[in-house]
Amino acid sequence: MASLKRSNRMKTVGAYAVAFFFLFFGLAPIVWLIITSLKPEHEIVNRTLTYYPHDPILTNYVDIWNQSSFPTLMMNSFITTTMTVVICVVIGTLAAYSFSQYRFPGKHALLIFYLVVRMFPAVLMIIPLFLILRAFGLLDSHLGLALAYTSFLMPLFIWMMKGFFDTVPVELEKAARIDGCTRVGALVRVIMPLVRNGLAATAIFVAIAAWNEYMFALMLTTSSGSRTWPVGLQLMIGEFQLPWGLLAAGGIISIIPVIILFALVQQTMVRGLTAGAVKG
Amino acid sequence: MKALSLTNIRKRFGPLEVLKGIDLSLDDGGFLVLLGPSGCGKSTLLSIIAGLEELTDGEVKIGDRVANDLHPKDRNIAMVFQSYALYPSMSVRRNLAFGLHMRRVDQATQAEAVERVADLLGIAHLLERRPAQLSGGQRQRVAMGRALVRDPELFLFDEPLSNLDAKLRVQMRSEIKKLHNRLKTTIVYVTHDQVEAMTLATSIAVMRDGEIQQNAAPSEIYDRPANLFVAGFVGSPQMNFLDGRIVAAGNGASLELGRDGGPENAAIPLPPEALAGIEASDGRPVVAGIRPEALYRQEGGAGGPGFDTKVDLVEITGADTIVSFTIAGQEATARLSADFKPSLGDDLTLAFDPGRLHLFDRETSNRLN
Ligand SMILES: Nc1ncnc2c1ncn2[C@@H]1O[C@H](COP(=O)(O)OP(=O)(O)OP(=O)(O)O)[C@@H](O)[C@H]1O
Ligand SMILES: [Mg+2]
């Protein structure tokens, strides 16, 4: 008995050790980023490593906000992200709904095609996308970048939302149409309230992916008019100077919206991701 | 006036022809049951009447309006679905009122209509609940309430009772019947349960593979089935089908049971009235249909036409005794009175009323007499 108890305790300790190891791996960079952002320049570039700032300062935050184009970068990111989410929500919801609830020729092939598109590395898509956007005069614009994002976020959105719509009985739409709704009206009034949590979860995935995206933004934007924060921050690394403090502060500022968004919809989102079938 | 007329309704899903020219009509206040096996197109036909599916060809007339191009909401119909399709995010009250709300009926009238229907169906105490908080039977009532509340011209029911347990199904069946008698509503009702069809309908349309096999009153469907399919689909235990021939004998004829080339034959002399409407072509191959309950035990002396056989199997249900036997090499059953308790292998003489003998053409499978 005693040995059984001990082996159980060993297992628990082992499990915690593994959990803490990975937690450390995930959290340490962020903690270090916060510490760095609070240090003055001379403390960052120093021969002796300090683990916490001796005299913490906020100048890095003030400076990056006031003396660089960072607010514009944030604004660009915000606009592009919003556009991406709106396009995905409007078109992706309709698409996911019809994939889930209707029968039509080619449906299966289209769905698989959308999955396959997701499997290509993004780098492969950049050059064709670049050419397409240039042809439409959409290079270096918010809309162009947002459209580029939908090329890989829309499949994700549709597949996730299809999963949520699949839990909705087909007869609901019919009942709503007999009660006087159009198909879209039935979707909005009767079906959407049932997949609300799923929609929130999916939209946030898309928003975070668009907000943090780097490679497409680097290739498809060229001016400060549409450049997003990950690219802008990278470009602040000059040939002769490496403003660590500013970069760290910029990084922290840019994850604040994500954290706020998460905090707001956390419950809804978790409920959406763990939801079972809709109860009739 | 006809409440519903369907003319030559056809429906294709790609290469698949699901409805192959349906003609039906229903009088005001009638109760039409669409009866048929799974996949024969019953739900599709109902969806076409409701306007939920486009039709490939034909005409749907509801009342005196051609409804082909009308939106479902403008057809003045209501529908009850097998899965009930209650709106899970709304309270029962909201579920009931939704159709009125969408038609911009004012609040007071809505509330009044909801109360009236809730009282009628005994669900007044459930109005504030969500569908997920209701039992199966309660959901069923709400689904019916949602149809009744708008007082439509035509009710469509798609297997509304098939998700209920056996006891509740019987209870709801009689409630639907009572409602129909009381409210004089016009109903099209889909089911593959023949007991539901027989008990509820004023008229039954038996469907198979997108075609109507017979459309008649329940008693007619039961007593004079138009072909082998209808005869076999309606009735439980199933009607006995025995291969045989009509053979002329004197000025009458006899039914000679037995498969062609089979070893055993049994000739049963038939009175002329059993053969009314059949051209007396000698040796015509037929299928004789006799319902198990049309057979009775003959104990000496005269009676209807009959035959001798032996008991193969006995099933005692309590209400009656089902006896299986073999005649002319073919298996059949008889439903006999419960006080008859034979043993296996006992001799048995069975007879039937010639008026309850059904004769079908063996090639076309259509009714002959
Ligand atoms: N939207 C559709 N697209 C393609 N085929 C369909 C569609 N809807 C129905 N079908 C096919 O049409 C046929 C008839 O279907 P329907 O639902 O009308 O049958 P049913 O008689 O109601 O059967 P059940 O008793 O099982 O409900 C089936 O073979 C079905 O697969
Ligand atoms: Mg059906």
Question: Would you kindly provide a written description of the structure presented here, covering whatever features stand out?
Answer:
- The complex is a heterodimer of chains A (280) and B (369).
- Chain A is an all-alpha fold and 280 residues long.
- Chain A is built from twelve helices and no strands.
- Chain A has a single domain (68-276), classed as MetI-like (MetI-like fold, Orthogonal Bundle).
- In chain A, helix 4 packs antiparallel against helix 9, helix 5 (107-119) crosses helix 7 and helix 7 crosses helix 9.
- Mean pLDDT of chain A is 89; it is low at 276-280.
- By secondary structure, chain B is of the alpha+beta class.
- Chain B folds into two domains: 2-227, P-loop containing nucleotide triphosphate hydrolases (Rossmann fold, 3-Layer(aba) Sandwich); 240-361, OB fold (Dihydrolipoamide Acetyltransferase, E2P) (Beta Barrel).
- Chain B has helices spanning 42-50, 92-102, 107-121, 136-148, 166-183, 194-200, 218-223, 228-233; strands at 2-13, 16-27, 31-35, 57-62, 65-66, 77-80, 154-158, 187-191, 203-208, 211-216, 240-249, 252-257, 266-270, 284-290, 295-297, 306-316, 320-327, 330-337, 347-352, 357-361.
- In chain B, helix 2 crosses helix 3 (107-121), helix 2 packs parallel to helix 4 (136-148) and helix 3 (107-121) crosses helix 4 (136-148).
- The longest helix of chain B is centred in the middle third of the chain and has 18 residues, at 166-183.
- The A-B interface holds A 103, 105, 169, 171-172, 174-182, 190, 193-194, 278-280 and B 13-14, 47, 50, 52, 71-73, 77-79, 81-89, 98-99, 102-103, 131-132, 139, 146.
- The site of adenosine-5'-triphosphate has 12 residues of chain B, from strand 2 and helix 1.
